[in-house]
Amino acid sequence: MEVHAEIDSLKSEIAALRADIGLLQSDHDALYRKVASFEASNKHRNLQRLRPPSRHLPPADDPPLILDSYFDDSIKAYFASEATSVGQKPAQNAPSGDSLVAIQERTRQGAYALLESIHRFGGITAFPINDVLYDSSEDALLGLRFDVLSHSSNAFLPSHYVILRRILLKDQRTHWQVFRYTTPAYISLDACKHHLQDPDESRGLRKFCEHIRDALVATQFKHDTIKHICLLSYTDFGLDTSDAIPLALKEIDLQCRRIVLSLAKYSIELHLTSTAIESVSSTLPEAAAFHLTALLTNATIDTLKTAFSSALIYLREENII
């Protein structure tokens, strides 16, 4: 009897520790979001233009320039020329009295904006921040913009930016280094900045950009998959003809590393890597929890629906749900 009493006592302590861990994890996620928000809002605080870019019309045979007046509002203020500072009106290229010229100017600028939007569908776009970018080996800045599509909302997410600065080495070689960025805190730029030292500058820039966007896309894919799973009914999981939705999303962090789902009166906590479920814990009865862990652990993000379908079928057969 004493052994059973000790076992019950240990189970109670384990349950209490799990509850404490859940609270601590919630506090951690809240602080993580605050830090990410603070970093994103302060990256460009000290960024200044070296000098306003010249805005000459391109030759007729060259592709049109993409003017920086079409930057997103999140960074537009940092790249505005002195003529467009607070309290001043931007200079108009067209005479105010000539309506035809004004219409032509707006049409031309609209065409540039449309061209830029088309390029952004590729997910990675670059833009010069000063007009000495390709003429000088020093004091050159290059902007990189990353766009990611959310399939759960069918809309592009707010863009992320990385500003690179070209530096001159002692041996007179040049390479890019990270100057400012608005990427999420979980994107490790240190893990990919070595690409910027590649002797082939174009290849290094391409690998650097692809590394960042791959991480952003992988994280968003996890978010979209989890949200999709939580919209599926019992019919979608192949159980019956009920339109009831068994799973509901309770918590999810920015990196989509920790997810808490509710199932009937139970909760399921998942810990994900970049490609699969790493660990599972739940408040289900002990035998059912063990079986659920076996079914879901190591399931890839691509096969998440199949794994949950098998788990729900088992729980239905055991009359747990």
TrEMBL record:
<dbReference type="InterPro" id="IPR018464">
    <property type="entry name" value="CENP-O"/>
</dbReference>
<dbReference type="Pfam" id="PF09496">
    <property type="entry name" value="CENP-O"/>
</dbReference>
<keyword id="KW-0539">Nucleus</keyword>
<keyword id="KW-0158">Chromosome</keyword>
<dbReference type="GO" id="GO:0005634">
    <property type="term" value="C:nucleus"/>
</dbReference>
<dbReference type="GO" id="GO:0000776">
    <property type="term" value="C:kinetochore"/>
</dbReference>
<protein>
    <recommendedName>
        <fullName>Central kinetochore subunit MCM21</fullName>
    </recommendedName>
</protein>
<comment type="similarity">
    <text>Belongs to the CENP-O/MCM21 family.</text>
</comment>
<keyword id="KW-0137">Centromere</keyword>
